[in-house]
Specification:
The complex is a heterotrimer of chains A (about 300), B (about 325) and C (about 260). With about 325 residues, chain B is mainly alpha-helical. Chain B has helices at about 1-25, 35-60, 65-85, 90-110, 115-135, 155-170, 175-185, 185-190, 195-220, 235-245, 250-265, 270-290, 300-305. Chain C is an alpha/beta fold and about 260 residues long. Chain C has 10 helices and 10 strands. The radius of gyration of chain C is 19 Å and the shape is globular. Chain C starts with a strand and ends in a 5-residue tail after the last helix. Classes of the chains: A mainly alpha (about 300), B mainly alpha (about 325), C alpha/beta (about 260). Chains in contact: A-B, B-C. At the B-C interface, α1, α6, α7 and α8 of B face α2, α3, α4 and α5 of C.
Chain lengths: ~300, ~325, ~260
């Protein structure tokens, strides 16, 4: 490989990595928000992403919706699902040992996956092309309009979330609850409502990621959420769990590393690379790239 | 203290009787091959859950990488049997020791982490182990290690499970076991009581990982094959679920959890489409109603029957993470 | 009398904050010393440095002729310093008896193999430890509760159990972090008696942090006063009571 084609290949992988990474970022945001607020690794979050993809699929195929309405429908549907799941499966366990809630989350994850298999069969479905794929070439690089769509949508959604969290009353309440739930309660914040809202927002973002992935890869299936879900969680930990910019950054890093590893080495080591990064970050900075080290007070 | 010895003997006798009953039932084919296979799977799962309970339940170190160690045992055992044509006992020992050694190596850097961070790190390492195996052609790569003879049978699985249960029980009732419990309860206090917390965490992790390797070796020598897909993080979740459902920190709980969940799975096999849906709903309902698990952190004892009530008070989320 | 503990110009710096600054202290064998100061003065930080929880940023700590900076807490315990905690840290889900037995762990000689095979020294040593632990519990009037889970004990008894557990490690120096916190005057008085008694019985040197002035002034032979991480005075209770700086800076009013 000469230097020129190496640079080209490198830049190409950056483009691929960014689009994949922004998907991870969207899912990771939900993980990080939910963890921040109720300290739960919500293993069902990857399946919400799958649910979003399927809602988008039904909307575009059965109801012939175009991209934007389908995206919004998927986000609303998944948001509702998030609220319902929290209400039924997690809220009654607010005071239970945390590991018990984690097991419940695993149960919810299985439930979503296998109910979807029951309804839609395990076969992958072809996601309709909502945009006719156009490929742009410049300077030897290949970018298609779907990658641009993913990046732009992801950026807009993240900007929206950042606005909500930083500049609205509800967002302020969210931050307060995640900082100190008891104090927030004493300040008159309705914690249950804030938690519901967090689940709704997080789930909506995951659903958007699901629809975008459907468009990008043209294929969805009921178990599609497991691996991306796990990797998004890793992204959240890498960035510093509970920190929104951390999740965005972590997602992009995950995407870039995966693209580089599959581009330059072998795609079989793609997942191992993701985990290796996780381990390295945890060992050197356990609280994540943007996290602060908190020592237990003695 | 002689009471302890007597009690051990009593339990061993009960085990012997149970073994004899099952052996007779199997011999006269009152138990069909389907259930025979499930009984062996239950025994393997008991080994896995009891050994994970040592790490998660007794020592309080939240690990979900058990499937990785199981894979190491399964593959190393298979290499010994198939490639080196060594006797099964050697394969079992090699599987156990290599998984334990890997646990030791992994434990040194990772056990500094706490709670959820340790959990996600062990999960990641478990997957790394699996992906590495997936890429080794010597052991069959992605298509798995085939042609392993079926050596595991009911007596092997049963007595190894009993051995491991006793091993872990005796561990718990030793100074090392108490050190582990102290670490679970309060790491800082444990350290000021003169306990080298790192050492005991690694010790528990090594033993737990080693026994997961034993289970893996039994597993691959029962199903003729060791396949990377059998050792994903989903299996780690399964094992964790058994432990938590039974009652984290309770040996009786870990055993019961393995029996109940493997049993449910086996019963539901007739309804393949509904199986996992029912399984997951059962799991959620059980956890919602008994978040501390079937046994809490208590052990099965006569006292429990006297009061006619399992477990005890619901305990808060302090010891768990 | 022989010097047991020497703290020489020790500082603990967290980021830009000097939690403890140039603190020096010496304690002789058998003394009973008090460490007082307003909240946030750095008392517990000083304890954490003495017990290896924190490694001092500057200075040197010598105990029984050995340098203990940089030693891990379990190593510090092994050379003879035990402590209790301001916010009680018992092994709350374990029995009262096991709480104490754990503290005997350092003195256990049987190996893991002996424990697994139930041979050799295992039974004898286990029996010995259990008996010793019960004896210790008797002293603290906790033997009747030995099978109770530690978290179910009333507050005062949890404090006593923590002291019993610390003594089980066989210390030369015992550090008590606010032992009377949350106790009523009657309990505090009993605690005072007990502290005096265990010092004699176990041949101990004791350093205690306390807010309850009647306790500190009542039992301590010498007192060190910390404020904003600096030692502003040390001396006998009488000297401290009349020290202008202490009255102004710390107490703000006359000590009873």
């Amino acid at each position: 490989m000469n230097m020129g084609s190496f640079t080209q290949q490198f830049l190409q992988q950056i483009i691929n990595g960014l689009s994949l990474g922004s998907i991870y970022s969207l899912i990771a945001l939900g993980y990080t928000m939910i963890y921040g607020i109720i300290k739960l690794i919500n293993f069902a979050h990857g399946d919400i992403y799958m649910l979003g993809a399927f809602i988008g699929f039904v909307a575009t195929t059965k109801f012939q919706m175009s991209f934007l309405p389908a995206l919004i429908l998927a986000m609303v549907g998944a948001g509702l699902a998030g609220i319902i799941i929290e209400r039924i499966a997690y809220r009654p366990m607010r005071n239970a040992p945390r590991i018990a809630v984690l097991i419940t989350a695993i149960g919810v994850s299985f439930f979503l996956e296998y109910t979807m298999i029951l309804i839609a069969t395990p076969q992958p479905r072809t996601f309709p092309a909502v945009f006719s794929p156009t490929v742009y070439h410049f300077a030897g690089l290949v970018v298609n309009n779907q990658q641009i769509l993913i990046l732009v949508s992801a950026l807009l959604l993240m900007a929206g979330l950042t606005y909500i969290v930083n500049h609205t009353k509800a967002g302020q309440a969210m931050r307060a609850v995640s900082f100190d739930p008891d104090a927030a309660r004493l300040m008159g914040i309705n914690i249950d409502r804030i938690i519901s809202m967090t689940f709704a927002l997080g789930s909506a973002l995951a659903a958007a990621a699901g629809v975008l992935v459907g468009i990008y890869y043209n294929s969805i299936d009921p178990l599609m959420g497991t691996m991306p879900g796990l990797k998004a969680f890793i992204a959240a930990v890498v960035g510093g769990i509970g920190i929104l910019p951390g999740a965005m950054m972590g997602g992009l890093i995950m995407g870039l590393v995966e693209a580089m590893v599959s581009g330059f080495f072998s795609s079989t080591f793609r997942d191992a690379a993701a985990f290796a990064i996780l381990i390295i970050i945890l060992l050197y900075k356990p609280s994540g790239l943007l996290g602060k080290n908190v020592k237990e007070k003695v | 203290m002689n009471n302890l010895k007597k009690q051990d003997l009593k339990i061993l006798c009960v085990c012997g009787v149970i073994f004899a009953i099952f052996q007779v039932l199997l011999y006269f084919e009152f138990i069909d091959p389907y259930w025979e296979a499930n009984i062996i799977l239950i025994l393997i799962n008991i080994i896995l859950s009891v050994s994970l309970n040592l790490i998660n339940g007794y020592t309080g170190q939240f690990s979900i990488g058990h499937a990785g160690f199981m894979a190491v045992g399964a593959y190393v055992g298979a290499i010994m049997t198939v490639k080196l044509e060594l006797p099964f006992v050697v394969s079992l020992l090699a599987g156990t020791v290599s998984a334990g050694f890997l646990g030791f190596l992994i434990g040194i850097p990772t056990l500094r982490l706490n709670g959820d961070y340790l959990a996600i790190a062990t999960l990641g390492l478990g997957e790394i182990i699996r992906i590495c195996i997936l890429n080794i052609e010597y052991v069959g790569g992605a298509s798995g290690f085939m042609g392993i003879p079926r050596i595991t049978n009911f007596p092997w699985a049963f007595w190894i499970a009993i051995f491991i249960i006793f091993f872990i029980k005796n561990f718990k009732n030793s100074s090392a076991g108490r050190a582990c419990l102290a670490i679970r309860e309060n790491e800082i206090a444990a350290e000021t009581m003169g306990i080298d917390t790192t050492k005991y965490k690694i010790l528990a992790f090594t033993i737990g990982a080693g026994f997961a390797g034993t289970a893996g070796c039994l597993f691959s020598h029962y199903y003729y094959i060791a396949h990377p897909a059998s050792f994903t993080f989903m299996r780690s979740f399964d094992i964790l679920t058994m432990v938590v459902l039974g009652g984290l920190g309770s040996m009786s709980g870990a055993i019961t959890g393995a029996i109940v969940l493997t049993g449910i799975s086996a019963v539901l096999a007739d309804y393949p489409e509904w199986r996992m849906v029912i399984y997951s709903v059962t799991l959620i309902v059980l956890m919602l109603n008994r978040p501390q698990g079937i046994f809490g952190s208590k052990e099965l004892s006569r006292k429990m029957f006297k009061f006619g009530k399992l477990g005890g008070k619901i305990h808060g989320g302090t010891a768990e993470s | 009398m022989a010097e047991l503990l020497k703290v020489d110009n020790v500082s603990m710096i967290f980021g830009g904050l000097r939690a403890v600054s140039n603190f020096s202290m010496h304690i002789d064998q058998g003394e009973l010393i008090g460490l007082i100061g307003p909240n946030g003065a750095g008392k517990t930080t000083a304890f954490n440095m003495l017990t290896g929880v924190y490694n001092p940023s500057e200075g040197e700590i010598t105990f029984d002729g050995k340098r203990i900076n940089g030693k891990k807490p379990y190593q510090v315990t092994a050379i003879g310093i035990a402590r209790t905690f301001q916010n009680i840290r018992l092994f709350s889900e374990l029995s009262v008896l096991d709480n104490v037995k754990i503290a005997f762990n350092m003195h256990v000689k049987y190996t893991l193999a002996e424990a697994e095979l139930r041979i050799g020294r295992y039974y004898n040593e286990e029996k010995e430890i259990t008996e010793k632990a019960i004896e210790l519990l008797k002293i603290f009037k906790l033997d009747g509760l030995k099978d109770e889970e530690a978290k179910n004990l009333p507050y005062g008894e949890q404090r006593r159990l923590e002291i019993a557990r610390a003594l089980a490690t066989g210390p030369k120096l015992l550090l008590l972090d606010e032992p009377a916190a949350g106790m009523n005057p009657q309990e505090t008085h009993e605690l005072m008696e007990m502290i005096r008694w265990i010092r004699k019985e176990f041949n101990l040197t004791i350093l205690l942090i306390e807010h309850d002035m009647s306790l500190v002034m009542g039992v301590c032979e010498r007192i060190y006063v910390l404020e904003y991480g600096c030692c502003i005075a040390n001396g006998t209770p009488d000297q401290i009571k009349h020290n202008k700086r202490v009255i102004e800076a710390y107490l703000g009013e006359e000590v009873s």
